[in-house]
UniProtKB/TrEMBL annotation:
Protein name: Putative rap
Subcellular location field: Cytoplasm
Assigned protein family: Belongs to the Rap family.
Keyword Cytoplasm (UniProt): yes
Keywords assigned: Cytoplasm, Plasmid, Repeat, TPR repeat
Pfam families per UniProt: RapH_N, TPR_8
GO cellular component: cytoplasm
Superkingdom of origin: Bacteria
InterPro entries membership: Bac_ResReg_Asp_Phosphatase, TPR-like_helical_dom_sf, TPR_rpt
Length: 370
């Protein structure tokens, strides 16, 4: 049997990774299958095998993001098996291992550990020659800093990524996603109106490539933006349209949550309750602890007699680095609600909880050092 050089396999894995980054599921699946078959004919090269195993892990992350994962992979166990006992990553593989591990920890909500691995990857970023690959790293850094409400850091990295993606039209999906992050940062900077051009461009480009996931995500982001501007009817329209494109996707739990919240804000309590029920039913099929807590919050604040103790119990579930941005928003929402009902002493406590969350978020500044 004729052997295949590791260099040829390496080039195919590079091509496979390009399709993964562009979310080209069909092409990525075809290349993975082809490379799997050729590995048995490849000349012995442990680094090439490690590269393949790392890319398999990244491939599964893509499928999970696209809500296409046919099987649940224990990613933590897989990474441990790839790392192996006594194995040492060298060169570019050291970068990929730390980068992919950071992505995994981020997906698990462990932001501190994710930042630690991203920092290790950044130390090896000079080994990455391809500017699009560096943009991928900048995008992931911007993403985690956005979720940690480290807005200036997020904006710095996302603009680096966006500048690259805009001149590489084959990475249009990443450009669209980068505009989402830019938009979210503007909202966090209380400049939501500056988000709109980015989101409108994202929606336009999503329709141009007929990507239903990106169309739906563009509509969700537009809904969030108009909600922050207190233009609630426009926000409702965008969230309702998003349902058409996302249907059974996991993002439906966020859509139902926002539709319930906005209807309650508008005084449409019965409609709000209907969306809470839809969200809870969806969570029975797609469980998620974060959203379970968010729906408990809606039930407690809007459908029950005012009971601060219930809210205190719910807030405890957000008392960690992943939860502080949510705690800030929920505490503010609750404080305004209690103020409108003349419960001033309770509203003071709730404002204090908001300030507490803000302080914890600011402490996250020390997690990243240049």
């Amino acid at each position: 049997m004729e052997t295949i050089s590791a260099a040829v396999i390496g080039q195919k894995i590079n091509e496979w990774y390009r399709h993964i980054k562009k979310l080209n599921v069909t092409d990525a699946e075809m290349l993975r299958s082809e490379i799997r078959q050729e590995l048995d004919m490849m000349e012995e090269d442990e680094q090439a095998v490690l590269y393949f195993q790392l890319m398999e892990f990244r491939h599964e992350q893509m499928l999970e993001y696209m809500n296409l994962g046919a099987r649940k992979v224990n990613k933590a166990e897989y990474l441990r098996s790839v790392e192996g006992q006594g194995r040492k990553f060298t060169g570019i593989l050291e970068y990929y291992f730390n980068f992919f591990r950071g992505m995994f920890e981020f997906s698990q909500g462990d932001y501190i550990t994710a930042i630690t691995f991203y920092r290790q990857a950044e130390k090896r970023l000079d080994r990455v020659a391809d500017e699009v690959e560096r943009a991928e790293f900048y995008f992931k850094m911007a993403e985690i800093f956005y979720h940690m409400k480290q807005t200036q850091m997020s904006m710095y990295y996302i603009m680096l990524a966006l500048d690259t993606y805009k001149v590489h039209p084959t990475y249009l999906v990443r450009e669209i996603q980068s505009r989402f992050v830019v938009s979210g940062n503007y909202v966090d900077l209380n400049s939501a109106e500056k988000s709109l051009p980015h989101l409108e461009k994202a929606l336009e480009k999503s329709h141009a490539i007929k990507d239903e996931l990106m169309i739906g995500m563009s509509l969700i982001n537009l809904g969030n933006c108009y909600s922050s501007l207190e233009k609630y009817q426009i926000a409702l329209d965008y969230f309702e349209e998003a349902q058409i494109y996302l249907k059974s996707h996991v993002h439906m739990r966020a859509i139902f949550y926002q539709l319930a919240l906005i209807n309650f804000k508008m005084g449409n309590d019965e409609i709000g309750k209907e969306y809470i029920q839809k969200g809870i039913e969806f969570l029975e099929k797609e469980p998620d602890e974060l959203f379970e807590s968010l729906y408990k919050f809606l039930v407690s604040l809007y459908t029950k007699t005012l009971c601060l103790d219930d809210l205190k119990d719910i807030f405890k579930q957000f008392d960690d680095i992943r939860g502080y941005p949510y705690l800030e928003e929920l505490a503010l929402e609750s404080a305004e609600f209690y103020t409108e009902r003349g419960r001033m002493e309770d509203s003071v406590y709730l404002y204090q909880q908001m300030v507490y969350a803000q302080k914890q978020i600011r402490r996250g500044d020390c997690l990243y050092e240049h």
